[in-house]
Amino acid sequence: MTGISQVRRNGFVALFVACGLVVLVAWLRGPAAPSHNQQALHDYPELFVDVTVCPLQGDPLPNGRRLEELGLLRADRYAYNAGDGVRAVQRYSEAQACYRAAGSHSDGARVGRLLTALSARVNTDYAAARLNLVTALDQRRWSDALSEIYRLLLLTEHLRRHGYVEWLNEIIGKIAARASTTP
Q1: In whole angstroms, what is the distance from residue 183 CA to residue 180 CA?
Q2: Fewer CB atoms inside 10 A, N or C side of the chain?
Q3: DSSP per residue over 143-163, as a string?
Q4: What sign does the CA torsion over 33, 38, 39, 43 have?
């Protein structure tokens, strides 16, 4: 009698382990974005929608020059840090508002051109990163998806509470786990 119960118990243990392995494999091979989060993938925020004003402290013309210089410094670093491009656009926008407040139309126009060029470049890179993420998720290229998530998080750092940013933060762990287990 003990031989049969021992075989039964071993059978249950083997069945339990097999079920656990099936669940683990299904979790690792399943879709990267669950179907209820597919909308979050396409519901992305605009990067630059806030109306900016010149800071109230100090004279608007020196503030504009200081903010323009900060924008130039950040724009130079954009190739190395995507978040610096977003911050440069914000500084340019503030500088333009200061130049307008000071009545310096030529300075405002110059910064406006810098603002337009850099915001177009950042928005293009943002669209490319979103497209690359969708493609990488569809093709199960987890390390590429992880790189794009990091880039998107840098670009959207100033929009922490948006659903898209929260979705990126939710899936990053799952994608990192898949990237580390895939050869």
Answers
A1: 8
A2: C
A3: HHHHHHHHHHHHHTGGGTTSH
A4: positive
First-last CA distance in the chain: 48
The two structure tokens encoding residue 1: 């009698």
Host H or E run for residue 31: none
Helix (H) or strand (E) holding 71: helix 60-77
Picking from 47, 30, 52, the residue whose alpha carbon sits closest to that of residue 165 is: 47
Q: Is residue 10 part of a domain?
A: no
Asked if the structure places residue 43 within a domain, the reply is yes
pTM of the model: 0.74
What's the total number of domains in the chain? 1
User: What is the domain extent for residue 129?
Assistant: 36-181
Q: What is the pLDDT of residues 84-141, one digit of tens each?
A: 999 999 999 999 999 999 999 999 999 999 999 999 999 999 999 999 999 999 999 9
Do the Cβ atoms of 97 and 52 come closer than 8 Å?
yes
Side-chain half-sphere exposure of 86, counting CA atoms within 13 A: 20
Please check whether residue 16 lies inside any domain of the structure. no
Q: Where are the alpha helices (DSSP H) in 78-183?
A: 82-102, 105-138, 142-155, 163-181
